[in-house]
Amino acid sequence: MKFKRLISCGLIGIMAASLLAGCGSGSGDSGETATTEDGKIQIEYWYSGGKTAVDVLTNMIEEFNESQDTYEVVGTTQADYTETYEKLQAGIAGDNAPDVALIDVDKARNLSDKNLIADINPYVEADSEFDREDYLDVFYDQGLDEDGKLFAFPAYGTTQVLYYNIAAFEEAGIDPASIKTWQDLAAAAEKMTSSDGSFVGWEPMWGYKNLVDAVFSNGGSLLSEDGTEVLINSEEWVEVWESFRQWIHDDGIMKIHSGGQGWEYWYNTIDDVLQNKAGGYTGSSGDQADLDFSIVAAMEQPGWGENPSYPTAEVLQNVMLEGSTDEEKQGVYEFMKFMTSPEKQAEWSMETGYVAVRQSTQDVEKFKTYTEENPQALVPFQQATHASILPEDPTGGKIYDALEIACDQVEIENVPAQEALDEAQATAQAALDEVNGN
Fold first, then answer.
1. Same domain? 288 vs 345
2. Fewer CB near the terminus (10 Å): N or C of the chain?
3. pTM for this predicted structure
4. Is residue 153 within 8 Å of 143, Cβ to Cβ?
5. Greatest pairwise CA separation for the chain in angstroms
């Protein structure tokens, strides 16, 4: 499942929603440890994901329960990460929250800022088997705040890579290894695009995050070092966004699918490549479960010009609810630890295509054999080792909202990048100034 934007709701809405949210039966703030009929400590877990991911997580819960006699995790699936978050807030307000939930970084940080989720540091510090160095920094560090609180534990990662049509590249005489920059990819797209428009060279996935990846690979930044200035209309940003506008609208060598119901645009993009209508697309590591690798192959995102590749890598996180008892929290930690064991991370990556959060996953024999036969599975992992973190939006999402509007202007409406980004910068700067008290 790909990431969706946080839909925030006010406290009144949260309290009202708590009556209808269908929350689980966690201990909340009762102070009593929940137990099963046979005396096990019961751990309520809320999670979501695509069908494959949910199936894998459900199996993992069963395996954890069978692996020991102290805890029993009871899982409840939600529609998506936004629904999980909304019901989580309602559950907290109604003293009926779960003990652990799977959410994305912004949502976890919001809960941590309100002191609603526990610091996991005491648990890792008390665990003699815990190996911090084995966790990829890009994933682990997204659960740390500026004071060093470990407010979330990495569950799995995702990053957007390039999936290319093998036959189209071969017919055009393009060696995938020759794609070192986005400019190289544009040249390849031009070579593959048909004169009648029936075949397009490349399809970037709709949305600003694709463009942000390329910007970071061009040396761009979201904010100034002192956090007072929004930099989204800088030369680095405009160069990248204007190039994509030209490739889509002026040159016709790229196109995007947009709109539709839910993830319709995403699957339309994938279908174009699988149905030999496009040379490739930029998509999620999690797409691998839906792809036919006799038709496509994967490669890392390239750099921009002379700059190295530096795309973002995002992480899904498990959070420990503050309202749980000490015994329940220990059970949550044991489940987090189980879920991120090298063996379980290998299973997760092989089944879903998402990125393992531990280096030693590569040493698991099943994973080594699998990646020898399926080299595309290693591409997202390799990219994550040198990826960047999508910066926190200090305005609570207003900067990224402005970027989303600008992205639609550039990708759909053919508005010049300078114009779109100047407008976005003005909106975002006003929001940042308000936060900073200027």
1. no
2. C
3. 0.87
4. yes
5. 70
